[in-house]
Design a protein that fits this description.
Elements (H helix, E strand, L loop, with lengths): L6 H44 L1
């Protein structure tokens, strides 16, 4: 890279970083949501069995 980086390059770099972070965060939140749904389903099954 040259010493004086133009604004467009820095913006492209930032956009790539932000898109990667958003992608990883979305995957993480989707996994957490699916795990919580499974947990809630197990809890409801246990409650139905008890009642």
């Amino acid at each position: 890279m040259p010493q004086m980086a133009p604004m467009s390059w820095t913006l492209l770099f930032l956009m790539f970083i932000l898109s990667y972070l958003m992608f990883s965060m979305n995957i993480y939140f989707i996994q957490n949501f699916e795990y919580m749904k499974k947990k809630n389903n197990n809890i409801t099954k246990q409650m139905n069995w008890k009642w």
